[in-house]
Amino acid sequence: MTNIVEVRGVRNQFGAQVVHDRLDLDVRRGEILSVVGGSGTGKSVLLRTIVGLNRPAAGSVRVFGEDLLTLPPARRAALERRFGVLFQKGALFSSLTVAENVALPLIEHAGLPAAEAAGLAALKIALAGLPAGAGDKYPSDLSGGMVKRAALARALALDPDILFLDEPTAGLDPIGAAAFDQLILTLRDALGLTVFIVTHDLDTIHTITDRVAVLAQKRVLVNDRLEVVAATDDAWIREYFHGPRGRAAAQAARTTPAPEDA
Ligand SMILES: Nc1ncnc2c1ncn2[C@@H]1O[C@H](COP(=O)(O)OP(=O)(O)OP(=O)(O)O)[C@@H](O)[C@H]1O
């Protein structure tokens, strides 16, 4: 089993506030890993640390076997091109159409001519499950679910090996959220992606996740299959997985047929 990401002994601190201390985490090749934890436990900071947007005060982050923090800039830029990131707010440029948003990394980072970038952008937009014509629209003309898909198309632009998603289903209605989950699962299977998801969504965890990492007490308390995590003796885990919403999500996952059986 190959680890694509290895976080070791990471400390993150903002002023006097210590967010992470001696935090370890592995992400395995090809898995869908969900990172959960109470509000403010540092899930987004962890994502930003792994993709190189936040420099930890201590520890190491190895991605694809390379130490992100000590790589020379050119090698680091090459490594970062293997990441696709979908930020919490979608982070599309509002003055550009969806197609222009998706083409931008192809022009800026891959150096493609505009016409080729436009052709590839159309493919990525289709891959993200958007209808033909969505590329000509501006982000403000799209529904919340379509904005997420457009941001996903942009995250897929450079053919990443690993996809980082920060609360991808937040703000979507349950049907939209379930469809987005299935899209992630399909893309993982079709493209052989590794997927790192920061989420509060119990349905996502129950339906598409291979392993779950729980952030608590400034570190990853447990990182394992859902059954193992849910059986861990910890107050937050009990409340989260065995409270009313956790029980409902588990029940729904048991009674909803998997897509291939449907
Ligand atoms: N750049 C920063 N400067 C100062 N403090 C920060 C910075 N980034 C994050 N923090 C603090 O670190 C803590 C963890 O933030 P983070 O956004 O990672 O939490 P989270 O677990 O993702 O929370 P939520 O589930 O509410 O989104 C918070 O208290 C936040 O205020």
Please write out the topology.
Elements: E1 3-14, E2 17-28, E3 32-37, H1 43-50, E4 58-63, E5 66-67, H2 73-80, E6 83-86, H3 98-108, H4 114-127, H5 144-155, E7 162-166, H6 174-191, E8 194-198, H7 202-208, E9 211-216, E10 219-224, H8 226-230, H9 235-242, H10 244-255
Parallel strand pairs: 3-8, 3-9, 6-7, 7-8
Antiparallel strand pairs: 1-2, 1-4, 4-5, 9-10
Question: Into which percent range does the helicity of residues fall?
Answer: 25-40%
Number of helices: 10
Total E-strand runs: 10
Elements, N to C (H/E) = EEEHEEHEHHHEHEHEEHHH
- Give the biggest beta sheet: 6 strands, mixed
Mean pLDDT: 91
Whole-Å distance between the termini?
31 Å
Contiguous uncertain segments of 5+ residues:
none
Kindly report the spatial arrangement of strands forming the biggest sheet.
Answer: 6-7-8-3-9-10
Helix/strand/pairing category: alpha/beta
| Oligomerization category of the chains in this entry | single chain
Rg over C-alpha atoms, rounded to the nearest angstrom: 18 Å
- % residues in beta strands: 15-25%
- Shape field: globular
Which ions and ligands are bound to the chains? adenosine-5'-triphosphate
Organism: Thauera sinica
Protein name: ABC transporter ATP-binding protein
Domain ABC transporter: 5-242
InterPro entries: AAA+_ATPase (IPR003593), ABC_transporter-like_ATP-bd (IPR003439), P-loop_NTPase (IPR027417)
Fold and architecture overview:
It is a single chain. This protein has 262 residues and is an alpha/beta fold. It has a domain at 97-159. The protein has helices at 43-50, 73-80, 98-108, 114-127, 144-155, 174-191, 202-208, 226-230, 235-242, 244-255; strands at 3-14, 17-28, 32-37, 58-63, 66-67, 83-86, 162-166, 194-198, 211-216, 219-224. The strands form two sheets. It has a six-stranded mixed beta sheet, sandwiched between helices. α3 (98-108) crosses α4 (114-127) and α9 (235-242) crosses α10. Bound molecules: adenosine-5'-triphosphate (ATP).
